[in-house]
Design brief:
Layout: H1 3-19, E1 44-45, E2 51-52, E3 55-56, E4 64-67, E5 72-77, E6 89-92, E7 95-98, E8 109-115, E9 119-128, E10 142-151
Parallel strand pairs: 3-5, 4-10
Antiparallel strand pairs: 1-2, 5-8, 6-9, 7-8, 9-10
Length: about 150
């Protein structure tokens, strides 16, 4: 091979190798620069397309989670004082609120639910897309977080 082809081949190989480095798991719906809770390492996809998890964070928005009656699910959304998450709302039946512990940081939303009967529930929250500080440029955008929980 001519030297120019070796260089091109080496650059192409290096580009492909580096393409996988530094990527982040998630769906990109987190909040740019804010830390988010990782998905539970015990996620298990099922045949119906939902996963079984005991913990949810901001990166899990849009997911469907399956629980068995008696299981508990915890939600931890890490926000900031200037971009706070609203409390998680529940729409549907099958879950009952349980103690989620204490939220120590302003802007975080934390909740926990126990699966008590078969049903489908939509959990949701939202926060400002941009920080809201007096005298600063702001926007009206909203970041939404939603998860569907199926209790079997």
């Amino acid at each position: 091979m001519r030297p120019i082809r070796k260089t091109t081949l080496a650059l192409a190989t290096l580009t492909l190798l580096l393409a996988g480095c530094g990527t982040e798991a998630g769906n990109g719906k987190g909040g740019g620069g804010d830390s988010v809770s990782p998905s539970s390492p015990t996620s298990t996809p099922t045949a119906t397309g939902c996963t079984t998890r005991s913990e949810l964070g901001a990166t899990d928005s849009g997911d469907t989670v399956c629980l068995a009656v008696g299981d508990t699910i915890r939600i931890s959304l890490d926000g900031t004082r200037n971009r706070p998450w609203k409390p998680v709302t529940v729409d549907g039946s099958g879950l009952e609120a349980t103690n989620s512990g204490i939220v120590l940081l302003p802007g975080d939303a934390s909740s926990a639910y126990k699966a008590v009967s078969a049903g489908q529930v939509r959990l949701s929250s939202q926060r400002p897309l941009c920080a809201t500080e007096a005298g600063q440029v702001s926007c009206k955008g909203i970041q939404e977080w939603r998860v569907t929980v199926e209790v079997k």
